[in-house]
Design goal:
alpha+beta
Amino acid sequence: MQKLIALLSRLDGRGYKAYKSITGRYDFGDFALCVEHVQGDPFAAPSRFRVCLPSRTAGFPPELWENVSRRVGLEHYLAEQFAAQARRFSRRRGTGHSGEIRIDAPGQQMLPRTAVRVGAEGVEARFTVGLPAAGRRILAREAIALLTEDVPIVVRSSLRAAAVDLPSARRYALTAEDADFLRSRLDSLGLVAFVADGAILPRRSGVDDCPLPNGVPFRSPPSLRAEMHLPNAGVVTGMGIPRGVTLIVGGGFHGKSTLLNALALGIYNHKPDDGRERVVSHPATVKIRAEDGRSVAGVNISGFISDLPLGRDTAFFSTENASGSTSQAAVIMEALELGAQVLLVDEDTAATNFMIRDRRMQALVPKEHEPITPFIDRVRQLYAERGVSTVLVLGGSGDYLDVADTVIGMVEYEPHDLTERARAVAAQFPTGRESEADSPLLLTPRAPEPQSLNPARGKKPLVVKARGLDGLTWGREDVDLRALEQIVHPSQVRAIGLAWAYALERGYFDGTRPLRAALELVLHEVEERGWEALGRFRDPPGDLAAVRLLEIGAALNRLRSLKVRPTE
């Protein structure tokens, strides 16, 4: 630390680039401070730092990080604590980002991330600091106070067991473990999702993922109630959603979409007091929607759309401007290609002509003049032939009662099992429509052509930048990710871009290897070495969070430059 103070003292008043001389590792006694990368000027992205606390200093009981689930929960808690302390001590110390202390703060979902890591060696945190300057001249006194007073307080008050609320840290660890256990039990119980009694599903707003104050606690209908024995919380009851085709019905504003959104995010573990701690879904659950205007690259949508005018090929369908129906067909086939096992569909965001053709429309427009085979005629085939379950939110299409295994009715945010009643209604009021599925549902894996993924922009070999949750800058192209509703943190967007870059660098995208197989190779290395495996493109990677193969591939499918080849 004294060496750092001496170095900074000699830099006072010099040009900002002189800060680069402090790059290195400094011993602060109870922890080490590493200056990994120094920003080029006070208005650039802040400098990247890392601290390492040995296990004897950190002092966290091994039981809190003895397995992956608990470790992720503890790391989430520590990242929250660091972020809270950093906000307390960040203050303006000059121009630009001067005086800023920041960590990649987590949200409501507990994800494996690179901001904080806990293990047998101790605790490591990666964060950024805005080094102080007046204009572009170094303010040495401010820098010394920031790095040798404020940063140590943030570190010591957030990353040591003696300084944090250890019972709260334990809650995070055990909550994560229970959620992972719940999710692991779904298959053996024949379920695709579980919603615990007492869960709070409504959120404060569309931009605030915290629970709605005074939200209605979830209460499962007796006929769908399942019981789980969790490692830490003991016996928990809740609604199990069986495999097959499930409808969620009810009047407007009664909680249908709220339940579906909770299922969509049930692929993640949620922090304590989120309300969704024990709402879990099958790990390969994908929310599907229509996306007018998106590009599609070589997807076999012939099972849903065929015989287009002018003889357009739908077995290898490409377009720069998909319609609602062609985009939804492509999204489903892309998800199946990437390994989806459960599809979630809300009619509010679906293409009506893709979802259903009722008997009257069948009579008015004969099948030979209609290229679309509606989803209603494929949804049971998906389950029977591929084992893919579907959960649909419906308010205006009773024809789906004929194909449903389970019907859940929402009344003032309370679920009711309407399966038997729905069957009686279907028998009393037959639709008379005929199935239009007269061809197989074919899936053709595709191999990305590596030259179509070139991210170079000018002299810079690689430009990868997250634009919040909505997009990813990849070289010269901005990729629209707004339809990927299961991405919950910008750190996942960064991980997506670096996963593509890693696959390109390693030659996994070689023009012959299927997309899913290429991404599996990337994630195999991530599993072995952590998300830090992607760090050679941006060292150190303190702002990455775990993301599924399904989102990495789905984002790539929205890259407008993407070209593919069929592999079968």
